[in-house]
DNA sequence: GAGTTGGGCGTACAGTTGTGCGCTAATTTA
DNA sequence: TAAATTAGCGCACAACTGTACGCCCAACTC
């Protein structure tokens, strides 16, 4: 059993090293296999014992970041149940995620419009997941029909991601302003959707 | 005088070559100086007679793409004056731009969340320009105060860019669906903003 | 205890990169 | 016409890349 544990540990080291390399100046496609190996403390050729490609590593990273995002959503929902507005609670939770998992969010942000079709597709799946859960929530907690709920959820998620993109490079004060603007804009959408639902 | 003309011509060749390299698989940071030179039909070292860096070339490309976008906006405004809804006319014009100038749009899209702070700043300036003009237009053509108009314009521009990002890889039929969804979502925002203005 | 498996390493190689240097040839200036 | 400028080129070099190959040795199987 010792062997598998060691292998998992090295794999983790590679993944963590890759995430740490993804600061504001680097993207997946600009990180080389050798660099990752160096940061992980292994020989370049050892990399192949764990991943076929840099691309395979990249997909793993996207999956992990997406998972972290989904966990965030659950957390946000539980807070809403405990009281507080749906919108402001979600916005605050999201902003916290952007700050505390900045490299994970940056990865999603960058590869969303990056050069690799496979990465783009992977990120899109995560975002779609995000939208679907919000659609369900909206349809259940308001009288909105699914079409309108879907339109609203999509618009909201897009705005949230855009705001996250701006917030990631901002300081706490600026982030607060962004969060407030985003709050108001999400209310526009909610109000508009309610209007078109005939309410 | 012959010499300057020739120099401009070569410079144009470099810029055009760079744009042509920026298809769905390449980004500015992944295009090498030698590649650009090769595509432009010059020796690698000749590149330096025109640009100090690849980065200097990149900024030039962002500026050109932004200019094309601004021209698009003027065109859209003139069409609106000639009749047709503000939103649907703008959406249609934008979608046309995404299709016919796909590499320019892709450049803005990618570098907006890219690895170079300088490029990100340059794209952000263009988007800000976009938002400001829409804010002015909105404030003038509706009773909205500037704060609300600004919030609305920002939200709309972000949604438009997001939709453009999806449309760029889609076929005509899918694009039509995206355009219709975007239309409805922009109406949500307009409606919501009007509501908060007390109308 | 003997044999197999497999993670990790070092070496090696061909390919690509950015860029410094000095030359040519043609245009521009004097 | 003679001199100066300059776009473009070829060569060279060191740095870096991905990855093939084969060895080692600790962990596992039997």
UniProtKB/TrEMBL annotation, chains A, B:
Ranges where the HTH tetR-type domain occurs: 8-69
InterPro entries, per the entry: DesT_TetR_C (IPR054129), Homeodomain-like_sf (IPR009057), HTH_TetR (IPR001647), HTH_transcr_repressor_FabR (IPR050692)
SUPFAM superfamilies: Homeodomain-like
Highest taxon above the source species: Bacteria
Gene3D superfamilies: Homeodomain-like, Tetracycline Repressor, domain 2
UniProt keyword terms in alphabetical order: DNA-binding, Transcription, Transcription regulation
Keyword Protein biosynthesis: no
The keyword Cell wall biogenesis/degradation belongs to this UniProt entry's keyword annotation: no
DNA-binding region: 32-51
Record's protein name: HTH-type transcriptional repressor FabR
Organism: Bowmanella denitrificans
Gene name in the database record: fabR
